[in-house]
Amino acid sequence: MKSRRTLNIGLCGLGTVGQGVWKHFGRFRADLEARLGARIVLRRVSVRDPRKARGVRVPASKLTTDPLSIANDPQIHIVCELMGGTGTARQVTLQALARGKIVVSANKALICVHGAEILAAARRHGGHFLFEASVAGGIPLIKAVREGLVANRFPRIYGILNGTCNYILTKMEELDTPYASVLREAKRLGYAEKQESLDVQGWDTAHKASILAWLAHGVWVRPEQMIVEGIERITPADFRNAASLGYGIKLLAIITRDFATNEIGVRVHPTLLPQETVLARVSGVFNAISVTGDVVGTTVYIGRGAGQDATASAVMSDLADAVALLLHGKGAHFMGEDRPPAAKGTRLAPPERIRGRYYVRLTVADQPGVLARVATIMARNRMSIASVIQGPSERAGLASLVLTTHESDERSMRGALRALTALASVREAPLLLRIGDFGD
Ligand code: NAP
Ligand code: HSE
Fold first, then answer.
1. Which residues are known to be catalytic?
2. What is the whole-number distance in angstroms between the Cα of residue 45 and the centre of ligand 1?
3. DSSP letter at 26?
4. Which sequence spans correspond to the domains of the chain?
5. Residue 397's pLDDT band (boundaries 50, 70, 90)?
């Protein structure tokens, strides 16, 4: 009988996701081996602190504190980078690719910043870089966009891409509780990044939006080129205001392409979504993404977007692809990860031209004439007010004034915000949220 080939995996990182991969690999290994016809061994594992208590038991003989030694190990065929960060992780990734290995990564921050360099290195050295777990956790969204929807061009992709923020927003709305107490729970559950500002300030969503924009349109858009706003200033009162207007609040990534002008728009901000829409009802750690293709129409993907098991599921999918690639060659993966659609002639849409409706919350002095002054500023900036909700503020002597507007553009809205901020009777920086009427 022909002997089976042995393929060795090196795991860099044994934190939330790494432990999930270790745990499920034990369960999945025999099945994977039977399906793919190879022996698959998790040969080495790197950590920073080998004495740390963990939820899985890894034999000491497999452990190292030197992830580069895994990247350089000639016995290892597949390197799984689950450390996070853009320093050592980049070194390990490039080193492993330089040695012709396949690298599997969940590291969206690294891919957003160094994706072009990493994919070029994979091409140059005949390796592969697989990153299903980097966007939307357990949802196979990258496969869907790259393979399942290969016949499509994408005028619009938008969705909830950060499980931590969706968990926080859901709990704030359900329990009428402030943001900081829910963030602690999201960290305990293993959803949040080590540096939690990446989640709550919108940067993690921006990293994922950047990867999706590249997959859909073949251009790398850096977070600095996008509008990126997070959820830190949203209060339970905003959920009550939004509900009274018929909306929920979600942190969305929105990626658009106008095929007439060839302009691409990528932005991340909290958005009021009509309560009856599918995405407005997606709660907890779940992600949901609406992908509109010019051939298929609109498709929607929902599933757990963060956490040990969901993320491990996506990593294992890449590990299975990596084994298939090693056994059967590139044909096993017909849409190579280095082949985005042509990006020729595209340019970034200037953010100030983005059109939409707005929700503005002002904390103002509770005095006669304030509403008139606010209305004058809006009119001077060509902003048409659609509704006004006035109520008491939590602070004595102040009132909360919530305006929604008819459709306008970012330039006008920003002009109005600057003037409102300068008004003596406006006592806090205004909170701006966008209203998303996507019609699906
Ligand atoms: P984590 O819990 O902080 O684990 C990181 C692991 O990497 C730890 O085992 C740590 O060692 C090790 N490590 C970190 N820096 C190292 C270094 N310089 N040298 C050696 N080892 C190092 O992180 P995680 O939540 O598993 O996330 C891992 C990656 O997956 C990140 O890129 C993250 O963005 C991404 N991701 C996470 C999720 C999620 O839900 N958590 C979902 C999708 C993607 P010690 O354990 O010894 O400290
Ligand atoms: N911190 C990220 C989130 C992990 O909450 O979505 C998954 O990418």
1. 208
2. 12
3. H
4. 6-137+309-334, 141-305, 354-435
5. confident
Question: Can you tell me which atom of ligand 2 is nearest the CA of 191?
Answer: 5
Q: Alpha helices, DSSP H only, in 245-387?
A: 308-328, 370-380
pLDDT tens-digit map of 286-300: 999 999 999 999 999
Ligand 1 mean position to 84 CA, how many Å? Answer: 5
Looking at the CA of residue 18, tell me the nearest atom of ligand 1: 26
Backbone angles phi, psi at 271, to 5 degrees: -135, 140
For 45-55, the pLDDT digits (tens) are 999 999 999 99
Q: Measured between alpha carbons, how far is 271 from 256 in angstroms, rounded to an integer?
A: 16
Architecture in CATH of 354-435: 2-Layer Sandwich (3.30)
Model pTM above 0.85: yes
Domain 141-305 adopts which CATH fold?
Answer: Dihydrodipicolinate Reductase; domain 2 (3.30.360)
Give CA–CA dist 355/332, Å, rounded: 43
Pocket, ligand 1, Cβ cutoff 6 A: 13-18, 46-49, 52, 67, 82-84, 88, 106-107, 133, 137, 190-191, 193-194, 306-307, 311
d(CA 255, CA 234): 23
Largest CA distance in the chain: 91
Give the SS3 label for residue 183. Answer: helix
- Ligand 2: residue whose CA is nearest its atom 1: 192
Structure tokens that stand for 43 in this block:
């040969």
Neighbouring CB atoms inside 10 A of 408's CB total: 18
- The angle subtended at Cα 357 by Cα 356 and Cα 360, nearest 5°, is 130
Question: CATH number of 6-137+309-334: 3.40.50.720, 3.30.1360.70, 3.30.420.40, 3.10.50.40?
Answer: 3.40.50.720
Rg of the chain (C-alpha set): 24
| Res 439: pLDDT | 76
